[in-house]
Structures are given as C-alpha cells and as structure tokens.
Amino acid sequence: MDIKTLVHLINSSGYKIVLAITGGGTEAIGELLRHGGGSATLLEAIVPYSQQAVDAFTGKKPEKYSSTRTARAMTMAAFQKAIMLQQEQNEAGRVLGIGATSILTKYDERKERQHELHIAIQSLQNTTTYSICFLEERERETEESLACRLIINAIALACNMDVAITDGTGLSSQEKIQIRSAQTTKEIANMLLDKDNNPDKIPRYFRIKEKEISHSHKVIFSGSFDPCHRKHVEMAKIASKKYGVPVDFEISLTNVDKPPMDFISLEDRISSIQACYNPDFMGDIFVTNTPLFAEKAIIFPESTFILGADTMERLFNPKYYRPQDTTSSLYEHFKEKKIDFLVFSRKGAKIDIPTEVKSIITVVSEDEYSDNGVSSTQIRKKQQNQKY
Length: 388
What we know:
This protein is of the alpha/beta class. 33% of the residues lie in helices and 21% in strands. The strands form two sheets. A seven-stranded mixed beta sheet has the order 7-10-9-8-11-12-13. Helix 1 packs parallel to helix 5 (140-158). The two termini are 35 Å apart.
C-alpha cells in the first residue's frame, strides 16, 4: 500500500494522536498533513530535538537518548498530552501517544556509529515498541524516508489498519524489527485518566498478587523497583522480621514530576519483584495511582512504610506535598492514619529528619543493615551489558 493511501486510512480511522519525534523520521509529520484530512487525527506534533528538549518533555534525563526506554517515556508524555487535549473521557480508548527516537547517518560520523530507530505506541491499555538496527549503508535522505515509513506503518497498526510494519520500507532480510507489547487491566489503565492536580482525585490500588492471610497492620515497601534487587529483598526480610508480618510491595503508576509509567516498564518491574519473591516474608504486590505518601496513607492506613535514604529526603520536602499540606498538617495526617516509617540508609547518605516528625520515623541501624551504595541505575546498566 502506498503511503498516501495509508495516511488517508489513518486520517479516517477515528483515532486522535499526539506524535513526538526526535533524532530523525520527522517527515512522518509532513506525511500525516500533506494529503489532507490530518486535522481529523493529529492533535499535536512535537519535535523535542535537543537533549535538553527531550529531558524537559519526558521529565527526566534518560540513560540513553536513542533507546526503547526513551521512546516509551516520550510516548507516555505524548499520550498524557493527548488525553488532556481530547476532553471527552469516553473517547480515551481511541487516543494514542506516539514517540520515536533514532540515530541516523550524518556527515563525518565515526565508523562504528550504530544507526537505529525506536518507536513506541501508547494507548489506554497497551504499550507497544518497534526497534531496529539499520545494517545497510544508506544516505541520510534514504534513512529519513525509511524511518518516516516505519513510523507511519506503526501508527497504522495502532489504528487497526491491515498493514505489516515492514510494508513499503525496502529493508534487507538481515534487518529485523524487534516488537514488544504489554497490555494491562482496565482498572490499572483507568489510573492514567486521573488528574494528579485534581483535589477530588480518589487514591486507588489494584492487587497483583494476593496472599491468603491478611493482617490489620501492614508493612508496605513503596518504590519504583527498576529493577527489584537483592538489597530490596534484604530490606523486606529485615522489616518482616521486625514487625512479624509479610512485606507488601507497592508501585505507583503515576509520578509527581514526570509522565506515568508505561505498561512495558510496569510489567518489567512487577516481574523483577516476582523473580525475587520469597513467600516467607513477602506479601502482596499493589499498583496504585498514589505518588505521594499522603495519598498512600489513605489507601493503606495502619501501615509502616519502608523507605530508602533518597525517598526519606523527599518525604517532608514541600515539592512532594499535596497543595493543602504543610509539614505539621502532613504529620497530623500520618498520625490520624496510624502511619509510621522504617528508614534504611545507604553508604554515604546523610538522613536529616525534621524534629517535629521524629516520633513516626525509625532508622535501621548499620548493625542491622548495610548498603554498599550500588544504585538501580548501575544494576540496569550491568543487566544491559550482559544482554549484548
């Protein structure tokens, strides 16, 4: 199918999209508009071309700018923008965020520079990625056209068009596209529709794993778990022994200062917890829409929350308060909900606890727990190096 026909089908599909592209493939924006009818589909097109623009768009500095992780961060930011622009909540099922990031050929580049393209599609219940390394030697203009066609094909597939991702691309038989997709439940998907700045937002959760025995007092380990590793497990084991109950793990789909988590990331993080799972001291796994501990206290009253040193720094930082909160009112909120905190330090970290809240915070001594300071970022990089 030629690209003009394909674009006409996309523009008559009824889907609404926000498209964000960096690095190459921006011709896709022109293709969606040049044949007429683009306003029926394209809500907004964004080109955050510099690294600083990508950082601002995704709310964080990526470990690598051309990667599936960055494409997914861009597509979730785009999806969030699309939901905001498409006001009718009942139409959320036909809203898409598309993100694409690439490294294409350029003048006077180093010989070993890898040319690659990563596309991500975010819908209300699904995240899909397409990744390819270009192996053939091509001119920049040719790679731009190739990236454009792959992006258009990916959009068409997301709009339920009968097309293959490789249609019209001219890729060689050695150039394989890696495809990954993750779908979530309706309950978790609906958390993407929550507005965090809405004072009427209802904190809610979805239970992934449920143990048969429940306890009136819970111990909750809240974190990103990107990935869950042996130090997380050690902290859970110590906390479980201290309080005599299994430790439940909680992941917030939404964030304070960056877009929500995509479903591939969520799947990976839940899998990393399950891979470390020990029924002797680990309990349920929850997904919530509560990035703030004031909100977590509402859905998990009478709980002890496990914190690392970095999270402890944010707990009583006004940036992470609800609009109506002060340190005093937040402390009273925790007291009312019967919440306290168990803090694990790490090597080189200095924990400052405001005097007025010390009664609800217990710091685990170095005799009980020691952390060598290895971060989740370092663990992720090591895992990536082992893959390739």
